[in-house]
Amino acid sequence: MPIVVITGLPASGKSTRARQLQEHLAGLGKKVYLISENEAVPKALFEKNSFFGDSQKEKVVRSDLKSEALRNLNKEDVVILDAGNYIKGYRYELYCITKSARTTQCTLFCCISQEQAWSFNEQRQEPDELPGDGQTTQLLNNSNVPYTREIFDALCMRYEEPHSNSRWDCPLTVALPEDRLDVEGIYRALYETQPLPPNQSTQNPPLCATNYLFELDNIMQTIIKEILGAIKIKAFGQLRIEGSTSPVKVTTTMNAIQLNRLRQKFITSRCRASQTAATPLAQVPQMFVQFINANTIGC
């Protein structure tokens, strides 16, 4: 599906633009998948400012966002990736995925001065809340949680601005805070241009089947949720997992970052293997449990 990669400084209005674009495209009868960093961070049980202060946590969520975009690829519906996307190398990875899938992409740059962005940030007053017992993570959104001055300045220093002469940022739409969003131009970029032909670098290795990847990821997310639940109540030791004859060993050193990193490694290995023969989904719980046990140190 066509992808809109939204990028900009912290508090530059990215989520506002994402919602405006979503409403416009939905009004034209398009199915729109809005993938939001503001929802992914609390869903991963990270507080906003501690998340942006830890590069390892950022890698976990960036990988999750990219995987979710990949799962929803087709040639008609739209993915809007609402995140900072401040690393040009990450935007290049998204460009390669789009090119390999033979669909279109555009970049929406929310352009703003640091001073104005900080002024917008100071207007945010919501507390940084994580889900409690029995509360679903899907309902949380930290877009109105303010950045600390330290984190705001650090993100501004890290930001790699998109440029129209970089092929992975093109076509590029620039939106100032006072501008009306050029939704017509974005629509033309997505639906009235030809996708770039894939080359060897974007075709090899080929994409794992999206339906298979979606089911695979759901199974692993369920297992990780069970493990984190055991950790929360300090139920360390052997934990039985449905679909696996082997128990997973829950250790005191386990955490969400480590488990999600193992999940990504397992997905990569299964996608490579699926080019010859996909692992039956019924075997995935057993294999993932064994993979966790083999790659976990601690007691």
From TrEMBL:
Q: Which SUPFAM superfamilies match?
A: P-loop containing nucleoside triphosphate hydrolases
Per the similarity annotation, which family is this?
A: Belongs to the KTI12 family.
Q: Which InterPro entries match?
A: KTI12/PSTK, P-loop_NTPase
Question: Origin, by domain of life?
Answer: Eukaryota
Q: Does the keyword Lipid metabolism apply?
A: no
Record-level Gene Ontology MF annotations: ATP binding
Q: Record's Pfam families? A: KTI12
Q: Which key words tag this protein in UniProt?
A: ATP-binding, Nucleotide-binding
Q: What is the designated name of this protein? A: Protein KTI12 homolog
Coiled-coil annotated spans: none
Q: Per the UniProt entry, what are the Gene Ontology biological process annotations, in alphabetical order?
A: regulation of transcription by RNA polymerase II; tRNA modification
